[in-house]
Specification:
Elements (H helix, E strand, L loop, with lengths): L5 H4 L13 H11 L3 E6 L2 E7 H9 L36 H11 L3 E6 L2 E7 H13 L7 E2 L9 E6 L2 H12 L2 E5 L2 E5 L5 E6 L13 E6 L2 H10 L4 E8 L2 E7 L5 E6 L6
Length: about 270
């Protein structure tokens, strides 16, 4: 997590404005896209930023000389160039995510534009950091052993983000024989005992990122049966069946890139 960069968090699908476009358009875009920050660009070059707070301030102000009728709201007459912020803090995709968070916290920023080789390539917002925090809290660190059959698990709950819920669900349900029940957008797989594996569809907002793959160790007495079912599903081992000391094991990559090492046990491993 300490190596996470702004480039892994930022939104790459940008909604931008040009300097001569109007304040009402800025407000309409914010409402339509449910965003609070709009970069102002000249081509790919960042020249300013309009925030929701800027629009609120514009509604409360009257600026002498900018409009003919002073009783009219300011946003009916002026381009965003008149209300945008020009002195901006920016980061690049390689900036550590922690450094970006500190800048935003120290200066009370709601976002940071991301610049690469002079071009605007993304924007990282408070919402991106909140989403990362939520996913980090939801994902249990797999430091113990996940036991498939006949013994007590050392951990009781794991949550994985997955790209293709249906295919990943089939990998675990058919391959390991685990039952599954829906829980909102997620699917919860149940193993013997109290252990659960929750598969949560990765949001569209996170599709451009590449979170580190989880590593699961699954002990099961029917190793060859599991391997046969996984291969019948089209899964191919990352590490073929081998023996290390007294253990037989093989490692597969599930359809979402998580590594699963399947190890033979006698049924009473604790």
């Amino acid at each position: 997590m300490s190596d996470l960069t702004v480039g892994e968090l930022m939104s790459r699908s940008l909604v931008t404005l040009e300097a001569e476009q109007s304040v009402p358009l800025a407000r309409e875009l914010m409402e339509m896209e449910r965003i609070r920050h709009l970069p102002v660009v000249d081509g790919k070059r960042l020249i300013g930023l309009v925030t929701y707070r800027d629009l609120l301030a514009a509604h409360r102000q009257r600026v002498d000389g900018l409009i003919a009728e002073l009783d009219e709201p300011i946003d009916l007459a002026i381009p965003v160039s008149r209300v945008m912020r020009r002195q901006l803090w920016t980061v690049n995709p390689q900036t550590p995510a922690l450094e970006g968070a500190r800048i935003m916290s120290d200066h009370d920023f709601g976002c940071l534009p991301v610049i690469d080789d002079g071009d605007l390539v993304g924007i990282v917002t408070e919402a991106d950091y909140l989403e990362m925090a939520m996913r980090t809290l939801a994902r249990e660190r797999v430091e113990g052993e996940l036991v498939s059959r006949g013994s007590t698990a050392r951990i009781t709950s794991i949550c994985l983000d997955v790209d293709d819920l249906a295919t990943t669900l089939r990998f675990y349900r058919v391959g390991f024989g685990w039952s599954a029940t829906p829980d909102g957008r997620a699917m919860v797989l149940s193993m013997p005992g109290t252990t659960t594996l929750t598969l949560l569809p990765r949001s569209a907002r996170a599709e451009s990122r590449a979170p580190a793959a989880a590593r699961l160790r699954v002990y099961c007495p029917d190793l060859h049966g599991v391997l046969s079912r996984l291969e019948a599903l089209g899964a191919r081992p990352v590490t073929p069946l081998t023996r290390i000391d007294d253990e037989q094991l093989a490692t597969f990559s599930d359809p979402s890139g998580n590594l699963v090492t399947v190890i033979r046990c006698d049924g009473d491993r604790g």
